Amino acid sequence: MTKRENYTRVLKGERGDRIPYVPNFDHWLAVNLANGTLPKEYDGMSRNDIVRAVGGTIWARTGGIEVKYDAEIEVIREEIDDRIITEYRTPVGTVQTMHQYVTGCRF
Q1: What pTM was estimated for this model as a whole?
Q2: pLDDT value at 92 more than 60
Q3: Which sequence spans correspond to the domains of the chain?
């Protein structure tokens, strides 16, 4: 079974043949490139080559997913300085998330 097949099975709640290692390289790579802190051994390597070098599973995240909420959920998004605060009001309670931009990076 390939790493991708294993990971897909685990995401579906099925049994895989190993625990998948799937770090978020997109964020890590963008931050380290922007800050000039990419380790020398990865200099000049592509994202996928770095993932392979550390034994991770290549799994690209995409922004092409449309988010849909139940009609009973109210989503309130507020930008304050370098933070984005999102509040989700549901019939059973309220929860908030906060995202903050890394200095020098705006994705």
Answers
A1: 0.42
A2: yes
A3: 1-64, 67-107
